[in-house]
C-alpha cells in the first residue's frame, strides 16, 4: 500500500477501535433502548458495518452482498429510531463478527482500487472518507446515547488547556464577500458543495461560545418565563416541555449541578453551555440583545482569511487539529474552559469555533446554489427545507476526521441530547 492508503487504513482502524470501546459493555446495555430518540447501541454498531458493506464492498468494490437479508434492518430510512428496539437486529456477538468480516474485505478493496482513477467513489479515497466520517458520527451519537443512559464509565478525564478570562467579547467581521462551501476538499460531503460567493453586510460575532455562567444569568433573570424572548413556536415548545434549564442540569440549593456519564457534579461556570435546544439558544440571544449568527456569518467568521482572500480548512489554517488548537476527539468528556485555545483563533479572532460544542445557527438546512446529490439522495437532499436548523463547528466528541470549516450538521430545533451550544451575533449599526 502507498502512504495515502496506509493513512486511510490507519483511520479505519482508529474509528473502529473507538466504536468497539463504546460498546464494551454488558449485552443488556447494548440491546436496550435508552431513549426513544436513540437506537440501541448494538444497532449503531452493526449499522456502521452494513453501511461499509453497502458502499465500499458492493458499490466501490463490486463484491456480492454478504448479508443482504439484514439490509432493511439497518436502513436508517426504513426504520425510524423509535421502532428500532423491536427489529430482529443482530445480537452483540454476531454484530461484532459481522462488522469484522466486512472490515477484512474493505482492506482488500482498499489495497486493490486505484485512488487516482476516474471513478468518483474511488477518487481521492472518497468512499473510504465517507465510511470513516459516517462511523465517527455514529460514535458521537453513541456517546449521546450513553450520556442519556446515565451509565458511568465513559468519563474520560484527559487534560485540557486552562481557560483565560481576558479578551474582547465580540469580534468584528467587515462587510464583503467570501467563498462559502468547498469545491476542493476531497472528503467534503455533497451538502458542502459547490464553493460559491456570498456577500455579507458587516457584523459582530461573539469571540467565544456562550458560557454556563452567562446562561445561568438568563435563567436567574426569568428568561424561561418571559415570552418576549421566544419565538411563537419556541414559546409553545417551552410551555409544552416544561423545560427550565439545559438538559442534564439539576438544581442544588442555590447552585446548579449536572449529570455527566453517570456522575453528578457542579456546573463549571467557565465552560460553554451545552445540551440546549435551538429554541433556548434563540431566546437567550434575544435576551442578550443579539441574535444567532446565520450559517454564512458563522462560516465567514470561522474560515475566511481576508488577507489571503481564501478559505481555510480550519480556523487557524491548513494544518490538522492538535491538543493546543481545539478540543476534539473525546480527549475529555466535556467542553474546554472558555478561552482555552487562543492559538486556534480564526483570522477574525473568533475562538473555539471548532471543537467543544456544536453551535446552532439561525439558518435552515438548505442546498447551496448548484447543489448535486452525491453519492445518494438520502445523505443530504431529503433533509433540505425548513424542518432542520444548521449546526456548525463540531463538539468535543467529534473526531478531527469529520471536522472542517465547511462541515454542515443539522437537527430538529427541539433536540438537546446532542453536544450543542451556541454563540451570538449582531448586525453592524447602520
Ligand atoms: Fe448512519
From TrEMBL:
Ligand binding (gamma-L-glutamyl-L-cysteine): 81-84, 411, 415
Alphabetized UniProt keyword annotations: Iron, Metal-binding, Monooxygenase, Oxidoreductase
A Pfam family matched in the record: FGE-sulfatase
Cofactor: Fe(2+)
Domain Sulfatase-modifying factor enzyme-like: from-to ranges: 168-426
Binding of Fe cation, residues: 47, 134, 138
Pathway note: Amino-acid biosynthesis; ergothioneine biosynthesis
Enzyme class: oxidoreductase
Its EC number(s): 1.14.99.50
DinB-like domain location: 13-142
Catalytic activity: gamma-L-glutamyl-L-cysteine + hercynine + O2 = gamma-L-glutamyl-hercynylcysteine S-oxide + H2O
Superkingdom of origin: Bacteria
Family under the similarity heading: Belongs to the EgtB family.
Purpose: Catalyzes the oxidative sulfurization of hercynine (N-alpha,N-alpha,N-alpha-trimethyl-L-histidine) into hercynyl-gamma-L-glutamyl-L-cysteine sulfoxide, a step in the biosynthesis pathway of ergothioneine.
PANTHER family: HERCYNINE OXYGENASE, SULFATASE MODIFYING FACTOR 1, 2
Protein name, as recorded: Hercynine oxygenase
The species this protein was found in: Nonomuraea rosea
UniProt lineage: Bacteria, Bacillati, Actinomycetota, Actinomycetes, Streptosporangiales
Amino acid at each position: 500500500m502507498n502512504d495515502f492508503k496506509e493513512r486511510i487504513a490507519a483511520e479505519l482502524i482508529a474509528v473502529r477501535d473507538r466504536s468497539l470501546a463504546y460498546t464494551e459493555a454488558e449485552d443488556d446495555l447494548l440491546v436496550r433502548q435508552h431513549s426513544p430518540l436513540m437506537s440501541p447501541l448494538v444497532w449503531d454498531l452493526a449499522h456502521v458495518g452494513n453501511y461499509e458493506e453497502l458502499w465500499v464492498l458492493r458499490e466501490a468494490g463490486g463484491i456480492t452482498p454478504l448479508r443482504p437479508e439484514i439490509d432493511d434492518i439497518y436502513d436508517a430510512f426504513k426504520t425510524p429510531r423509535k421502532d428500532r428496539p423491536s427489529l430482529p437486529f443482530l445480537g452483540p456477538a454476531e454484530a461484532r463478527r459481522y462488522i469484522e468480516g466486512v472490515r477484512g474485505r474493505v482492506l482488500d478493496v482498499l489495497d486493490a482500487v486505484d485512488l487516482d482513477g476516474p471513478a468518483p467513489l474511488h477518487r481521492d479515497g472518497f468512499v473510504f472518507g465517507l465510511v470513516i466520517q459516517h462511523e465517527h458520527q455514529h460514535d458521537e451519537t453513541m456517546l449521546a446515547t450513553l450520556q442519556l443512559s446515565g451509565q458511568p464509565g465513559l468519563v474520560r478525564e484527559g487534560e485540557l488547556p486552562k481557560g483565560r478570562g481576558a479578551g474582547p467579547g465580540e469580534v468584528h467581521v467587515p462587510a464583503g464577500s467570501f467563498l462559502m462551501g468547498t469545491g476542493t476538499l476531497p472528503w467534503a460531503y455533497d451538502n458542502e458543495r459547490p464553493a460559491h460567493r456570498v456577500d455579507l453586510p458587516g457584523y459582530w460575532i461573539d469571540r467565544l461560545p456562550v458560557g454556563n455562567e452567562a446562561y445561568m444569568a438568563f435563567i436567574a433573570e426569568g428568561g424561561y418565563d418571559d415570552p418576549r424572548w421566544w419565538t411563537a413556536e419556541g414559546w409553545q415548545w417551552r410551555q409544552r416541555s416544561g423545560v427550565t434549564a439545559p438538559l442534564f442540569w439539576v438544581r442544588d440549593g442555590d447552585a446548579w449541578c449536572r449529570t455527566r456519564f453517570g456522575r453528578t457534579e457542579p456546573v463549571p461556570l467557565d465552560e460553554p453551555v451545552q445540551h440546549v435546544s435551538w429554541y433556548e439558544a434563540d431566546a437567550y440571544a434575544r435576551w442578550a440583545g443579539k441574535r444567532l449568527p446565520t450559517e454564512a456569518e458563522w462560516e465567514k467568521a470561522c474560515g475566511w482569511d481576508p488577507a489571503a482572500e481564501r478559505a481555510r480548512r480550519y480556523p487557524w489554517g491548513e494544518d490538522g487539529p492538535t491538543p493546543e488548537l481545539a478540543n476534539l476527539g473525546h480527549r475529555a468528556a466535556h467542553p474546554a474552559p472558555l478561552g482555552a485555545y487562543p492559538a486556534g483563533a480564526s483570522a477574525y479572532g473568533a475562538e473555539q469555533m471548532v471543537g467543544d460544542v456544536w453551535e446552532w445557527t439561525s439558518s435552515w438546512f438548505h442546498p447551496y446554489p448548484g447543489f448535486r446529490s452525491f453519492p445518494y439522495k438520502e445523505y443530504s437532499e431529503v433533509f433540505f427545507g425548513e424542518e432542520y436548523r444548521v449546526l456548525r463547528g463540531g463538539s468535543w466528541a467529534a473526531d478531527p476526521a469529520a471536522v472542517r470549516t465547511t462541515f454542515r450538521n443539522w437537527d430538529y430545533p427541539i433536540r438537546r441530547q446532542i453536544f450543542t451550544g451556541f454563540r451570538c451575533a449582531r448586525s453592524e449599526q447602520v
